[in-house]
């Protein structure tokens, strides 16, 4: 049996489940408590419920509620976790929706715990699904970034950015890989060594750590966007700790012009780092990112108005892309 990375504490309902509870829960009871290899990670509980509607999920199990009934309030965990069946063209996959909350610290905590309970071999509807790894797409909203020199394409509100790679600095990355005094040269040097051992690299000028998205997921997102007729661009993404960093328009414009960064959000580099941790333990995790643009830089990274239409489009694209991954799995 593969020894997976350990996690600290119990932050999700899954970590509280025991064999006696698992026997009473659909999806889990046929898989010794394991979670499926198709995961959509979202920032808040509201988006999970929206995804249930938008993707027309069936056989829904709100795992956090189910666990609370079995164990009590403590067993609920800190975030919502939902299991459901997504069907398209008469083919279904078991889909896991996870609330990760905002920022890299929360995403590192939640995703490390969830992935420790997921499996690429999954019994579903009486058949065994085998994938080439655990598939995770973070789906949410982001600021789009345009160049000042007219560099095409121009990102607009409502477009999707399919992250081919993510880059950026964050305290979460430095502290977890380098050490707690992350302002010191020793820590940044140690981080660089360990980051490369996880299979990642740095930008050509060595200014930013960079993590590529799984090419299979990038291709699946492209295909999903085309089928759903949603404008989707391949490009880079920049993860940062501070939302208010977006007030510095010029810094982000330079990211677009120099590195082809088309979006900015606050989570994906942590998801990539966790995926790298699991890879080191022999557990393949394919990570991708679909971002719905709700504002553009330069200008306003948040527009006035409703974001729900953009969120719905991002969810549709991510869900269909995950279905594409399921279609390619062996049975």
Quick structural overview:
This protein is α/β, with parallel strands linked by helices and 331 residues long. It has helices spanning 19-22, 45-54, 63-71, 104-115, 171-177, 185-197, 215-228, 249-259, 268-280, 308-327; strands spanning 38-42, 58-62, 81-88, 91-99, 121-124, 127-130, 134-145, 160-167, 201-202, 209-212, 232-239, 261-265, 285-297.
What does this structure look like?
This protein is of the alpha/beta class and 331 residues long. It has helices at 19-22, 45-54, 63-71, 104-115, 171-177, 185-197, 215-228, 249-259, 268-280, 308-327; strands at 38-42, 58-62, 81-88, 91-99, 121-124, 127-130, 134-145, 160-167, 201-202, 209-212, 232-239, 261-265, 285-297. Strands 7-12-11-8-13 form a 5-stranded mixed barrel, surrounded by 4 helices. Helix 5 packs across helix 6 (185-197).
Describe the protein's topology:
Blueprint: H1 19-22, E1 38-42, H2 45-54, E2 58-62, H3 63-71, E3 81-88, E4 91-99, H4 104-115, E5 121-124, E6 127-130, E7 134-145, E8 160-167, H5 171-177, H6 185-197, E9 201-202, E10 209-212, H7 215-228, E11 232-239, H8 249-259, E12 261-265, H9 268-280, E13 285-297, H10 308-327
Parallel strand pairs: 1-4, 1-7, 7-13, 8-11, 11-12
Antiparallel strand pairs: 2-3, 3-4, 5-6, 7-12, 8-10, 8-13, 9-10
Helix pairs in contact: 2-10, 4-9, 5-6, 7-10
β-sheet strand percentage: 25-35%
Secondary structure tally, helices: 10
H-E order = HEHEHEEHEEEEHHEEHEHEHEH
> Gap between N and C termini, in Å?
21 Å
Strand order of the largest sheet: 7-12-11-8-13
Overall geometric form = globular
Radius of gyration: 19 Å
> How many distinct beta strands?
13
| Helix content, binned percent | 25-40%
Mean pLDDT: 94
**Largest sheet, if any?**
5 strands, mixed, barrel
Helix/strand-derived category reads: alpha/beta
Which runs of at least 5 residues are low in confidence (pLDDT < 50)?
A: none
